[in-house]
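A favour between colleagues. Tell me how you read the following sequence-structure pair.

===
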Amino acid sequence: MIAEWVLGQRVAAIEDVDSYVCRPHNAAEFEAALIGRRIERAHRRGKLIWCQTSPLRGRRSPGPHLGFHLGMGGRIVATDRCGAVVPGGDSTHGLAGGHQHRWDRFTVHFARGVSLRLVDKRRFGRVRLDPDIGSLGPDALDVGLREFRELLSRGSAPVKARLLDQAALAGIGNLLADEALWQSKIPPAKRVDGLDAVEVAALHRAMRRALHRSLAGGGSHVGRVIAARHPGGACPRCGAAMRHGTVGGRSTWWCEREQA
């Protein structure tokens, strides 16, 4: 979506700068850094999207990278000058018609009328100038089974904690980790050095399925087990009770029978 509507566009204005989502930057910093520059390239790794910006006219130095971290429920929306979502302009939620601006946290207006918006009801997303890309591991969708086995098996951490470690593997959040572990029937607290080859292969397949489902359906909330992650919830596969605890410092749900 960014590539289709934003590449080559010149930044005309910055708006809706949420001081919490955009900390430590303020509106004046974004304006000084971005207005007059064009978006040259767009990249994604995990939940981080970043755009390379051009030099200002008459100068050689490239502009900063503009980074969007989508957090748990953030999404990118592109709208036209009338506020309508452009075709394909919200690839994660399939919105149509007029865009509701209530949850806009950061907006870039371009000279030709298109706007790029970070929409995030829960304010877990982030906007950064020159985000720290080097701290992220490889994108989870780009990792083959052999590399996944190597990344997963280092040390003795609980498997869920390793999945959530963005320095090891970028793009797996809390809900996706629960979904992938449930699909592969692996206990979230099991140590990574205790996983056998069959379990690692099953988890790799489940992780990829969960990611593809999330991308196609608009977020990690579309997983099969997600609706059962509550007190009294039952496993959608076997009907056993869902259990709750903390693994790797995060709230975790698992099937008491199949993930025992």
About this structure: The chain has a mean pLDDT of 90.
